[in-house]
Amino acid sequence: MAAAPEESTRAIFGAYLLARMDPRGMEYFRNTHGAFWRSFRVAVYIAPFYAILLAMRYAMGEVSTPPLRFITIEIIAYVIAWTAFPVIMDVITTATGRREKFVRYIIAYNWAAILQNMLYLPLAMLSVNGFLPPDSGGFLGFIVLLVIMVYTWFITKTALEMPAGYAAGIVGIDLALSLLINGYAEKLL
Fold first, then answer.
1. Average pLDDT, the chain
2. Which pLDDT belongs to residue 57?
3. Tens-place pLDDT, residues 80-107
4. Do residues 153 and 18 lie in contact, with contact meaning Cβ atoms separated by under 8 Å?
5. Cβ-count burial of 66 within 10 angstroms (0-12 exposed, 13-18 middle, 19+ buried)?
6. What confidence category does residue 189 fall into, taking pLDDT thresholds of 50, 70 and 90?
7. N or C: at which end does the chain have fewer Cβ atoms within 10 angstroms?
8. Residue 1 above 60 pLDDT?
9. Domain spans of the chain?
10. CB neighbour list of residue 12: distance below 8 Å, 6 or more residues apart
11. Comparing C-alpha atoms, which of 6, 36, 21, 34 is closest to residue 108?
């Protein structure tokens, strides 16, 4: 079932408010199991832009593996990246007594990926195509990573109603998981 345009608009606005460090952004996410599953549609919305980045990487010779292997590994890594963190967070929220906040947290986390990728993907595409000098691309990438981490931290702290340090730990888990998935995918290429 697709997210209704009204639900998508509200969710993106909520993600925008959270990006401004406004906790009222949480009010724009429905707290239902249906909204939870529909929030994973964000992965579908982002996928074409991510595919363009991957095609650019392949065309620029960053990857020398056969195309079918490259596509297969990247698709599997993409699906795992979108599903592994919610599974881990289900365990963490249950263990910390915050299970009732899990659904809305994942909904906000997923919709926030639209804004995060609006920052990351253009920078990555410019970097892959050589439009950014290597030294500035790395620096800008680091700044974007920090912005995304602070954004994710605020969502975690707000949605799960937890102390800042615990939220930072969850962001660290999220980053480590992402690095693990991407690193293993790169190794397979």
1. 92
2. 87
3. 999 999 999 999 999 999 999 999 999 9
4. no
5. exposed
6. confident
7. N
8. no
9. 5-188
10. 111, 114, 115
11. 36
CB 132 within 8 A of CB 126: yes
Instruction: Return the structure tokens found at 76.
Output: 């599997």
Place of tokens 């680091």: 142
Tokens of 44: 């579908």
Of the two residues 127 and 132, the one the predictor is more confident about is: 127
Q: Residue 118 corresponds to which tokens in the numbers above?
A: 């609006």
